[in-house]
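Researcher: Let's try something more involved. This one mixes different molecule types, so please make sure each is placed in the same coordinate frame as the others.
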Amino acid sequence: MRMEPIVERVAERTGLPLNARTVERVLRALLGHHDFWEIVDAADEVVPIVAETIRVLDEQGWLRVEPHGIFLRESARETLEREWGLRPLPDFRCLACEGRGIDPLRLPSEGIETFMAIQAERPRAIIDYDQGYITPESTLARFAFAFMRGDIQGRRVLILGDDDLVSVAICLMGAPQEVVVVEIDRRLVEFLEYWANQMRWPLTVHQLDLSQPLPVSFLRAFDTFLTDPPESIAAFRAFVGRGLAALRGPGSAGYFGLTRREASLFKWHQVQRYLIEQGAVLTDVVQNFHAYVNWDYAPKTRAWRLAPVKSLPDKPWYRSSLYRIELLTEVVGEVDTVFDVHTFNDAEASTT
Amino acid sequence: MRMEPIVERVAERTGLPLNARTVERVLRALLGHHDFWEIVDAADEVVPIVAETIRVLDEQGWLRVEPHGIFLRESARETLEREWGLRPLPDFRCLACEGRGIDPLRLPSEGIETFMAIQAERPRAIIDYDQGYITPESTLARFAFAFMRGDIQGRRVLILGDDDLVSVAICLMGAPQEVVVVEIDRRLVEFLEYWANQMRWPLTVHQLDLSQPLPVSFLRAFDTFLTDPPESIAAFRAFVGRGLAALRGPGSAGYFGLTRREASLFKWHQVQRYLIEQGAVLTDVVQNFHAYVNWDYAPKTRAWRLAPVKSLPDKPWYRSSLYRIELLTEVVGEVDTVFDVHTFNDAEASTT
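Model: All components are placed in one shared frame. Result:
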C-alpha cells in the first residue's frame, strides 16, 4: 500500500489541491475516530477531501463504512501503525480555556520529571552565543505543540541551535525516528551527547556555526525543523532559511520563535513575506508562547545600557511567539550563503 | 499634548520604524506598570523604542524616572485617561496554561451572564445567509482577545456580519467609542437594534449585503474591524477586503475567522499573501479558536451529502482559527468592487 496513488485519485476526483500530508492527516484521524464529523475535526482538512479520501480507501478495502461509523480494517491499521509508523495524534490542548492554549502538564508526568531533572544540570547561558534560553515549561509547551501537530512522532527532526533543550523533550517523550542537533556551543554539544549515549536516544549532535552552510547531506532530508534565531533578518535567513532548505518538501513543517522585544511588527512583516514567497503557509502564530529565564549576563547587554532604571528584572519579561509553517511547494531556502555573524545583530536588538 | 511629535522624535533618535500605535502601546504599558522590564513586556515593542519613548516623555515632563521605577505624572495620566481615553489593558490570559490560551471566564461575571441571557433569545441560523454561528463561549473569547490587544476600548469598531453577536459582548463589557454593524439578515438587524435601544449602547446597525460596497462614509473611518467571512477567496476579499478599506490606517487592526473545514492550507496561503501585500502584518493565528454550534439545517448542506455516514454530529466538529492583522501602511482593500454572491462558494466549501 502506498500513499501516492491515494493522493492522485483524490486530487483527480475532487479537482482540489492536496499533498501526501493531507491524506496522512485523514489517516491519522481515522486511527483515532469513527464518527465522520470527528474525523473531519481531527484531520483539519476540507470536507470534500476527507469524504473522497474515505471513499477511495473504502474502494481499496482499507476500511468499512457502517451505519454507526467508519472503521479501519485491522490489516490497514497494522500497515499504518507498523509499516508507516503512524499513530493517532496526542491531545495537549488546555482543558481550562477550551483548547485555545497548550498545557504541557498533560504530557506524561514521568517524562516531565526526567526532563526537569536533566535540564537542571544544563550549562548556563553565555553572552558569546546569544543564548538566553526559554523556561523548561516553555520548552515542554513547544514540544507538546509540535507533537500534537504530528511533526515529531516517527519524524526526522532537525534542531538548529538547541540552547532550549527541545531535543531532550523530544527524545524523552516524542518517539521521533531521528533527531539531529546542530549547535555552536561545545558545552551544549557535550551535554546532549552525554545524555544521548546514556539514554540510547536516536540523537546526533554536530558542532556547527550557523553563519556557515549546513552539510550537503542535510538538504531535503528532514520532516521537521525547530529553531530560535537571533532577531535580525540576516539571522532569520541563516537559521530559518537553512531550516527550510533542510526540509524534504511539501507537507514538511518548521517551528521558530520570534519576539517583539527585539523585532518590531515591521520586521515581522518582512519575515512573513519571506516565508510566503518561499511557498510556506503560516499555520500558527501564537503570541508570547515562550517565556525566557532571566540571564546572568543581563548587565552586559545593550538592553541594560538602554534601561532608564538599572534594576535587574525579578520575573520573566522576555517572551517570544511561536510560529509554525508548513511547506506547500518545493523550497530553496538558504543553501550555501555564508553570513557575517555581525549581521546577526541589528538596531532593534538589545540582548547581546 | 499630541502623539505625532513624540512619534517623530523617537523615530529620529532611534532610526527605527514605528507609528502612533507603537507609542500608544508604550503609554498604555506605563499606565499599568512601573518596572522597566514589565513595561517592555506589556508594550510588546522593541527595547530601544520603549527606552527612547520614555526618555522623550521624561524630557517633556510626562513622567519621573526614579531609582525604584518609572512613574507617569498625575497630569499626564489624566490626559491619557480622560482626553485620549487610554486605559491599561485588561488581562484574560488563561491561568492554567501560562497564558498561551485566552480564558473568557476571566471577564466580569455580570457581563458574561447578561451576554448569555441576551444571546439565548437570538434568531436561529438559516442557510440563506451561510449563518452557522460560533458558540457563545467562542464569541466571548474573541471579544476578550481583541479587548486584551487594545482594539476595543475607546475604539470605533466595525463588524461585517454579526451572526456571532460579538457586538453584544463588546457593548456590554468593552467600553468602545462606537460600534457599527453591517448585517444582511433583517432578523438580526432588528434583534441588535432592539438591544442597542434598550441598553443605550453606542451601536448602530445597517442592513447591507456585503457583495455590495460599504457606504463611502465607512472608508478609513474605523480603528478595528471584525468579521467571519464565507470561505471562498471572493468572499474573503468582499468581507476582509472591505474591512481593510474601512480602517483608518497604520496601527488599525482587523480580526477574522478562517476554518480548515472549508479552506485548505493552499487557500490559507493565498489569503496570507493578499494580507501581506496589502501592508498588513499577521500578529496572531490561533488554530481552532472558535467552535461552532451545530446548525439545524445540517441535512441540507453539501457536507451532509458528502458524508459517508448520515448521522448528525452530536458535538462541535466545525472550528475556525482566529486571525489578527495590524496595518503598517495605508491600504487599499476593496472599495467599490461588486461581487457575485455565487462566488462566495467554491469547491472546498460544504456548509451551504
